């Protein structure tokens, strides 16, 4: 089992990755998260766990750029839970909701992957073959009915003098 990667945060706000023995940026920490790496951020002097503060910093920076994930209304509602009797349940609820969302997203991706085949080109090839087969079937049906007489179907309300509700009288 791999040990948790330790990143030290110094008073000058620099981050030091002890695994690679090098300073890293906050964006490097974000990439560790995206890559699924287990890590913790520790204060270099006291050893206090600063992981949550660094994660909140990453969220804050990304919320300022581009399209935010968290609306002002959602953030306000979360803030209202601090000090509320249900504050302890809120974190657990959000975690479970996010996990459910991620599970459903993965299931959707798997289903789409099954529909699409291995690559988009494979899907395009399948669609092209299906359309070609439909076209051939259409041509065969058309050539088979060429020699047969066509009998027109009588139109409703086609008798002279009858009122056609679809037509406007002038």
Q: What can you tell me about this protein's structure?
A:
The structure is a single chain. The protein is an alpha+beta fold and 170 residues long. The chain folds into two domains: 1-69, no CATH class; 70-120, no CATH class. Helices cover 52% and strands 9% of the residues. A four-stranded mixed sheet has the order 3-2-1-4.
What is the makeup of the main sheet? 4 strands, mixed
Poorly predicted ranges: none
Strand tally is 4
- How would the global form be characterised? elongated
The neighbouring-strand order within the major sheet is: 3-2-1-4
Number of domains: 2
Global structural class: alpha+beta
Elements, N to C (H/E): EEEHEHHHH
């Amino acid at each position: 089992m791999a040990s948790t990667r330790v990143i030290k945060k110094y008073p000058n706000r620099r981050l030091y990755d002890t695994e690679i023995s090098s300073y890293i940026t906050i964006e490097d920490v974000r990439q560790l998260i995206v890559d699924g790496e287990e890590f913790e951020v520790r204060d270099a002097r006291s050893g206090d766990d600063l992981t949550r503060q660094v994660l909140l910093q990453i969220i804050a920076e990304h919320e300022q750029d581009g399209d935010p994930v968290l609306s002002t209304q959602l953030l306000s509602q979360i803030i209202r839970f601090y000090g509320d009797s249900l504050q302890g349940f809120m974190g657990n609820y959000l975690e479970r909701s996010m996990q459910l969302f991620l599970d459903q997203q993965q299931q959707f991706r798997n289903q789409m992957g099954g529909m699409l085949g291995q690559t988009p080109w494979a899907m395009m090839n399948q669609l092209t073959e299906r359309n070609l087969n439909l076209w051939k079937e259409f041509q065969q049906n058309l050539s088979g009915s060429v020699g047969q007489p066509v009998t027109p179907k009588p139109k409703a309300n086609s008798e002279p003098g009858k009122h056609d509700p679809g037509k406007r009288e002038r």
